[in-house]
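Hi team,

Filling in the usual template for the complex we talked about on Friday. All components are listed, including any nucleic acid strands or ligand strings, so the model treats them as one assembly.

SUBMITTER: L.P.
PURPOSE: interface mapping
COMPONENTS: two
RESIDUES: 1512
SEQUENCES:
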Amino acid sequence: MKPGLRIDTLRVRRFGHFSDLTLELGPGLHLLYGPNEAGKSTLLAFLRAVLFGFEKRGSPERYAPPEDDAPFGGELRLSTGMGPLLVRRMAAPKGRKSETLTVLGPNGDAVSEERLKDARGHVTRELFFDVFAFRLEELAGFEQLTEERGASEALVAASMRGARRLPEAMSSLRKNAEQLYKPNGSNPELNVKLRELEEVQAQLREVGNRPALYFSKRERLESLGVELGGLDSRLREDGLELERLARLESALGDVSSLATTRAELESLPSLKTFPEGGEARLEDALQRSRTHRGNVARLAEQLSFTEAELERLSAPSPVRGREEALRAAVAAYSERSELVRALPARRAALGMKRRQVESALEELGLGVDGPGLVALDLSAGARAGLEALSSRLDVEETGRREVGGALARARSERERVEGVLARTELELAELPDVRPAQVRQQQAGLARMRVARADLERLGEQKMEARRRIDGLRGPVTELPSSSSPVIPVWLVPVAAAVAVTLAVAAWLLGGTVVGVLGLVGGLVLTGLLEFARRKVESARDAERGAWEAQQQSRKQEEERLRVELAGYVAREELARRELLASATEAGLSPAATSSDMAARESALAEALEQAGRRESLSRERDTLRSTHDLALRDERQADELLRGHEARHASLSTELTACLSARCFPVGLPAQAALALWRDASALRQRWQDLVADEAALSADEAACADVVSRLRALATDVAPGATRLSEDSNLPRMEHERGSANASSKESSTASSESMDLVVMRVNAALETAREQETERRAAEERRRELREEKARLDELCRTEEASLSALLAEGGGGDEETFRRRAVQAHRYAELTHRARELAHRIEARTGLSDTEAREALRALGGEEGLRTVLSQVRARHAEAQEKSKEVLTEQGATRNQLEQWENDDLLARLRIQEETLRAKVAELATRYAEDKLALALLGRARRRFEEEQQPRVVQLASEHFALLTEGRYRRVFIPAGDERELRVSDGERDWSAAQLSRGTREQLYLAFRLAVVRDFGETRSALPLIVDDVLVNFDPGRARSAIQLLAQLAEHQQVIAFTCHPWLRELFEAEGAQTQTLESRDSAATLRAV
Amino acid sequence: MHFKFVHAADLHLDTPFRGVAAQGPLLGRFQESTFRALSRIVDLCLRERVAFLLLAGDLFEVKDRSVRARLVLRRELGRLHDAGIESFIVHGNHDPLSGDTGTLGLPSSVKVFGPDWEEAEVRREGRRLCRVQGISYPDVEVRDDLSARFRRTGDGFSVGLLHANLGGAEGHANYAPCTPAGLGSRGLDYWALGHVHTRSELMLPGGGVAVYPGNPQGRHALETGERGCVLVEVEDGGMRRRFVPVDTVRWHRLEVSLTGVATLDALLGAVGEVVDVACARELDGHAVRLVLTGRGPLHRELARPGALVQLEADLRARLAQGHPPVLLESLRDGSRPELDWEALQAEGGFARTLLEEARSLKEDPVALARLWEQEALGSLGQRLKRLGVDVLEVPRMEWVSRASLLGVEALHEEEEGA
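RESULT (copied from the run log):
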């Protein structure tokens, strides 16, 4: 049996006619007895209301107190599997949320309503009202239990583990499925999507088999192309024919005019051989003859004039024959004229330069003139020698200066070291001569002396302590507890035994055997007790003595140990004294020195140690200084030697320099640098002198060349132009040669004048040369002209002769011997040519228009039946051509449209979109359908599982119901069952035949229903939760026997779960009480609902 | 003798992609992807200088729907033709021969096998490289074992080209069913199969090999991971096979655990992380189906009506802007109440009865079929099939399992919520 719910206390605040009613209930079977209107049904309603909530307003079951507006309700104290609970439910008569529920836990604190639900075993209100708390009139209705969606599912749910939410789950799944799809619906999602999919597919069907259409269109396009090709070729043929005919038509006029022209031509004599343009040619020939004759006369005249001119030009001239020599002389002069003019200036400049060089030479002060200077050895080698000398001198000088500085430094260093050394010696002399090791040894002695003294003191204290402890041990020795005499003497025991025996004998004698034996036994027992007590005391005393002896023993051992310890202390003290004496000697103190002496000695030793250290460091420093001093002395000597070496080398170099200078006429004693500078000046001057001499040589060479040229020119000029010679007689040119080298003003002027007169001569010679050349040119031109005129005359004579011959030939060609005949025939020939030309032109035009020769054209025309025939054929061909063009246009249009359609299909977005929509919708539909199928399958599975569960679970309930019903009917009916199938009907059987519930009498039917309910209650209690059973006078239709059985059943049930029954019938009350029910009596309403427990 | 060939199947040219919005920047990339996959196969053929290309059926998604698909196939095979590479084609259940009159005008180097067994030879410089045998589907539904008509006709390397369901692969219509033993008994060296979209290889008894290259471009969220074709190199009787991915957009199914994710921002972060890791490859695009798993603080918030849809829209916009762009196909809540099945079984009670009922139903197809009709699912299935959706065509066992889980979850919902 599962832990469940039990009502311990019922407290009505206000409910129905009750107010402030308290009932104590508890485990087991309870009967609430009361007359009609005592409020039994009200209490049932109260229990239902507090556990599950009040009935709706207006319901008679609500039991709202009628009189006022105060809240009503009450509370129950419950025992549950999870501890006690107090459930209080109150309702206000008015207001929207009128009901309040309070659930309090074991500690009086509010807990969740869930606790109450848990305690109720999650049984539904309906199931509880139907099965656990019912009235007589409710007992009769089993229909509710068998209803498909009502209590049956709830019953199953309530009695099934894990199926509590079955109704909700099924309804939720049903709702989900209906939202997804209804076979005939239109709004659920899947229906909508299916419709959309159908629409899209309809659109796709409209589009049709697109590739098939596409490829058939493509074929059509190709056939159109072929057709168009055929049409094109036909059009081309027709066009050609049309063109030919049109041309023929346009050439019709020309063909007829050609015929008339040909006829006229036939009438004329053959003049094909008549010279073309004969008349004009005749006139031309006559005219040309005349012109030639005039030209010949004019030429003869020009020829005579030219010959006279030639004669005049052939006169002789003086220049002729000498032109070449004259031109050479003039060219030579003009080549040198600039030089001649510049000569005087150059001479003056040279003089000036010479004077400058000579004065510079004097300033140099070497005592030599120009040539002397040139003779001096101023070569680069000598100069390099001098430079080397100078640099070596410099080096020696620098070295000497450096060595001097080093010597001074070495000397000062030596002096400084000597001073420091002296100071150190002085300080060292002041310090006492003590070594630090000695001082340290004394310090160590002092420290050991201190330790020895401290040891002595400690040992003294320890010795004292040891002595004190020995004295302590020797102190009062506890006495052995006396009472050496025993508490109870040994003899007392036999005496007591004897007394007991005596008394026993006396008793035997006086009282008989029994008393005697009893007395003897009692006496002996007492004696035994006495002996036992004595032994106890003895053993306690022995133990005490043993303990005392042990204590004494340990004390002796302790004392012995302390004595040994004391002897050890004395020995160690002796050692310490010896140590003290030795260390005092070492420290230089008497052993009896006080600690202040020792402190003074210690500070003195510290000072001595410091001084000894100082002395040691000073002596080390002195040694160092001495070695430094030696070093400084050595340095000084080395510097001194170096200085002397430098000075010797310097003297030898100075001597060398002096020798070198005197060898070059340089002032002796000149410093090397100055001598170098003088060297440079002298060599520069020597260069200038050499340049000057070279310039003078060049000038005299130039003057000689110029004089030669001038004299040659003058000689030639006298022959050619006498005036020119005269002019140059003043020339002073010969004098120039004598005065060369010493320039002065007069010679300069004369030379200028001479050069000017020479220019004049040259000019005249040139003029004469020019005149001679011009005359020569003129003569040559005249000769040329004469030759040309002669040639021209010969040519013209030849021309005249040719012209005559051609004229006579022309006349002969014209067919007549004379001019008259020629002119007449010429007119006829003109007409002939005109006609021929026209005929040819017409033939050309025909050919141009028709592409045929005139004869062919005529043939063609004849073939077509002449002009009339041509026009008929032409109109026929035209019509045919226009028709073909029309057809071609149509085909082209169709071709374009087809091509467009194909392109459109190649890139069709609509189709792609539709296909995506289709695919998406299919996916969506598949998903929704899957969900729908799952929901439906889940629903079906739940239904099947429920039926199976019922079938498997039912036997327990039905079996219990059978047992109960058999008990209730005292074995009349044996079995209750529910037939398989969906018909949920309860049937009973007596083993031979069976009946439906409706076939039973009222009482038996109620017994059946009660039996079934009790079965459910038991099963529920076993599997879920033991809930209280509350029955309101359900046994009234039972006969007393069956009522007793029923109450026995209730009592059995009450062993496991609480049973509360109401009745108003005294005979039932008796039966209940006979089964051990705890009865409480409800007074009638008038007695103000007081309660009397029995 | 050394030669190479490429084996591809299930091109499904111009597949309409579901889950891709009809408007949007990614649509173009997805719609182009099947064509681009074919182009890349052809590029591979040209690059590797293969001797021939095998296409094992289902070249078109729907044969009579897409003009472009046909034109593109013609163009691409034309490229192979120009390079002197032959192509062999069989048609499958998506593009059977029925009604096709060959108006497509493929290049002359393309051999399309007819509805009867045929054998063709590949020759180079007068020598025979290989024999290729094949059969096309005459109609959509071919229930015969077509492989039984194949046979070895001589020595040398022999290839069987067939669109077939080997060993009754789940999730694919059972057309031209065949068995490994059956294929092995035909004595061919290489079975170039199509129909199953997942790449696989099976060594056959007798030494041959049967290869499904898978489809070269994943088309929906169930076709995840890299897709491509198989490059086969034959040398002196030996054979090397290499898978070459050619897909340009890739599908992923990604799970994001809600466990320990406290805020929506954190969830977005976690999603971003998972997506970044999975979609790192530089492709034209990625598409993901996100499944939220586990239980966490956010579960209740996401369970509110509309919350998941809003989150999905937000994520979709966010992911589409990434580089490479990612298409969010859908966001699904795969989080389940954590039920202790063992305990439910052991505890007994109604849940156990329910599970037992489901098990007995699964073991009894007749009862399931009866229930199927009883719940009018059969008629709905027929209606769906007419619309081209065969999801409810036959009752499937796994639905019974899922329904039983659904039932158990419904029964425990309150306890979960409490």
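MY TAKE: Chain B has three domains: 2-245, 249-333, 341-417. The first helix of chain B runs from residue 25 to 48.

Thanks, L.
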